[in-house]
Fold:
Amino acid sequence: MDFITNNIALIIPATLFSILALAEVFFPRRHRNLPRKWRWITHFIFLGTNNIIGKLLVFIIVIPAAANWAADQQFGLFYLIKLPWWVEAVMAVIILDFAVWLQHLIMHRYPLLWRLHSVHHSDRDLDVTSALRFHPLELILSTLYKSAWVGLLGVPLLVALFFEIWLNACAMFNHSNIKLPNKFDQIMRRFIVTPDMHIVHHTTNMDEQNSNYGFALSLWDHVFQSYNDQPRQGHNSLSIGLVEAQNESPSRPIWSLLQPFRSVN
Structure:
């Protein structure tokens, strides 16, 4: 179990990150608004900071701890209904994916939470490193939120770990700046969120930001009618980020860390 949690959970995302970063070099979807250097430095600072906070959260509760607690106490939905393990695994992934979709929607609807989430949206380019750009305070809320769902559902530890790896992999994929064949994209987005689908969510247009909330499955945006097929500006002339931050500031680490404490729209 330690090998799985300490190695596979790091090796798989790191490998996918490298593949997507390389694909962005050879098959870019859009021209960059800002150079890589400071954006990447800022995003890796977020990664380092959030990893430290993740270690500290062990003293409170994290997703594996919630899964272990549910198993020890035989607590949660799946311990009550007693379905075959594979049915529970599929149901857990689908329900947790909905929970993440709902959290994302809520982060956009409430001003205090939007202050935190706007740090992610202030990025003026979108690439694989954008999946790392989440404010530490948002990470804490997100971890506690997902841990509560894991505990209430009684999700087995391996399923909870699989979901985290799957969610991170999907986030890196749909934030990446890679060009997919249009027909392939249209087929794929029936099931999972593609880069061309997610970029709509990151334009400066407020109505487009309030659509395409999915991180992994595209199902929920179709069901709740928040799906937006294409950006109004087209993919070749997109304005990405926040209207009030169309400069180099979002690429700077201190500016980005302090952003929630400024006035935002």
